[in-house]
Amino acid sequence: MPELPEVETIARGLRQGLRGRQIRDLFIFRPEIINGSPARYQTGITGKTVTNVWRRGKLLILDLDEKLHLVFHLKMTGRVWIATAETRPDAHTHISFLLDNESQIFFQDQRRFGYSILFTPEGLRQWDFFAMLGPEPLEIDSKEFTEIFCHRRASIKSLLLNQHCLAGVGNIYADESLFLAGIHPACPACDVGKTGYQRLHLALRTVLQKALDAGGSSIRDYRNAAGKPGAFQNQFQVYGKKGQPCPRCCRALETIKVAGRTSTFCATCQVGPSVCS
Ligand SMILES: [Zn+2]
Q1: What is the pLDDT of residues 145-173, one digit of tens each?
Q2: What pLDDT is recorded for position 271?
Q3: Whether 2 is catalytic
Q4: C-alpha to C-alpha distances, 149 to 87, 113, 158, nearest whole angstrom
């Protein structure tokens, strides 16, 4: 699933290519991918100009003139990218937007968990999913970060994944930052301790920034706004590396389920739930 660095990379690429471009027309091949009325979606977007592209959590948002917000949730396998005029939509292209320079925006999604919604500013503010998003991890300091978690009893990994606590972090960057900070994924949040949170805050910022610099991580499907993969998967320390040696101590990496998600960790380097401090 595209997480903060992937969606941010897509937003940056789209912003460069789309600002000031008019959407002349759109073709909806699979109306059920639209949350709300497809007819209103179609008439609302046709003829509008893209004024900005941004990200909030894992949401990709295109601002259109007349104060409309075109929102995409990419979920597992969604992609939004700029295709040339000659590119033919494939079986996974659910919407294509035709631009005034003849290029196109494709919204593709193989697994079809993703969706798109058109909002007024008020509608976006009142949308529960949007309104409930926690702060952006790259926009808060260590003290604010600690305050989110330190009184909770749930495991730190489950809270890192909880979009109401923190927006944009998923399985990859939770596992990578917990490893870097030396914290066991199942450690109760209230036992991580002040110095643990300082390490985790720094670790999360570091892995997110490195992933942004690498253009995101491509495990299977993620592609940027130009349809190209990211490269941060080549820098993973633990994610998806069960059985491989820990990069720090060489012990074989293990997995456990935390909050229903597979978590890869080192049992030596990541302090367990009973001894967190
Ligand atoms: Zn280790």
Answers
A1: 999 999 999 999 999 999 999 999 999 99
A2: 84
A3: yes
A4: 47, 29, 11
Q: Tell me which of 75, 135, 261, 273 is the catalytic residue.
A: 261
Helices (H) then strands (E): counts for the chain:
8, 10
- Report CA 82 to chain centroid distance, whole Å: 19
Question: CA-CA distance, 212 to 205, in Å (whole number)?
Answer: 10
CA of 252 to the centre of ligand 1 (A): 8
pTM of the model: 0.95
Are the C-beta atoms of 23 and 51 separated by less than 8 Å?
Answer: no
pLDDT of 20 strictly over 80? yes
Q: How far is the CA of 238 from the centre of ligand 1 (A)?
A: 10
What are the strands of the beta sheet with 93-99, ordered from one edge?
A: 23-28, 93-99, 104-109, 78-83
CA distance 113 to 98: 23
The alpha carbon dihedral of 267, 270, 271, 273 has a sign of: negative
Rounded to the nearest whole angstrom, what is the distance from the C-alpha of residue 27 to the centroid of ligand 1?
A: 51
Does 30 qualify as catalytic in the annotation? no
Residues with C-beta atoms within 5 A of ion ligand 1: 246, 248-249, 266, 268-269
pLDDT digits (tens, 9 = 90+) for 180-213: 999 999 999 999 999 999 999 999 999 999 999 9
